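Intended use. Records such as the Arp2/3 complex 34 kDa subunit entry shown here are meant for training and evaluating sequence-to-structure methods. They are not intended to support clinical decisions.
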Amino acid sequence: MAFFNGGSRALVEILTRFQSSERPMPVDHTFFELGSVRYHVQASASDPENVYLSISTPSLSHEASTSTCLPEFTLQEVRKMYHKFAEIVEPAREGYALTLKLNFSGLTRPKDRARAVRQVSLLQSIVLGSQLKHLLGSLGSSGATKLVYNHRDPFFVSRTPGKINAIFPMRFRDDTDVAVATSFFQELQDAGSSYAKAPKCSWSAIPPPELRGESVQHLTTNGGFVSFDIFERHVKRKRAAKTAWILLNFQAYVKYHIKCTRNYIQSRMRKRQESLAEVIQNARLRGGQDKKKLQVRKKSKRRLFSLGKAKKLQKGFRSVIDGLRRLRLRIRVKALDRFRRCFVMPKLATKKHDYLRLGA
């Protein structure tokens, strides 16, 4: 439960900033957490050593407590936790269930002050944990008590001989979350049965017998019902506060775990898709390159074929011309030579004539 330790980060930031300031400054902050928890921090510049912190948180069970004030067992738990540097102011600030006067001047070391601020940030978990511890100790043997830590996700506790049953109706918005949660609950059930010291865990798609008589709207779920068997050793001394805070944050922890698992699966699928797309792209590029190479090879083959054909034709033409030449040399008429020797044509004598130029 490291992710749900119950501390208020806003409260830690406000108190740390107030202590680290060089000169006193007035503080007046009001903020909400978890939709229903309200804080008010007030300090004046004239009295910088005292800081007034008020908190208003609804009761876990409206059936057990209808008043806005905190019960006495919760106030005793707060006094026990903050007796070194805080006092309970009575009556509390109007509109709030509890007001504390914080004074860190007695803590000289910065380490002790930081530890005190962290303890103050756990005020809500101490209040709710003390209420749940008291409810677990005062449960009757008849019926189940509905507890509301988050208005969207109430849960039930009931007492049977020798143990306490904590029942959580699980509701999810997406069908994918339901599928992941079902496998998670099965693993949780198997893991709980393998450890002897861990509370026994069971999961069912239908409401367990302890919830008979409850309204239908509280029993309408899409993720089934998760039940824990809590024994007396789980609610004794220091274990009681830890057990109470685990029960209060179980549903939030399950949803956090499922969202993380879903994001992990989606990221793995996205990486796998990208790797497959890269392989396909490389195959396409290789196919295009091979196609280009094939086209080049075909063109070169065509060129070689045309060159070879031209050479063959040229060779054929040359052979034909050579044949004709040889044939022409072989054809000679012998009688024509005799005729040429017998009839010798005499040469005609030419006489030069001198021409006189006629004068004018």
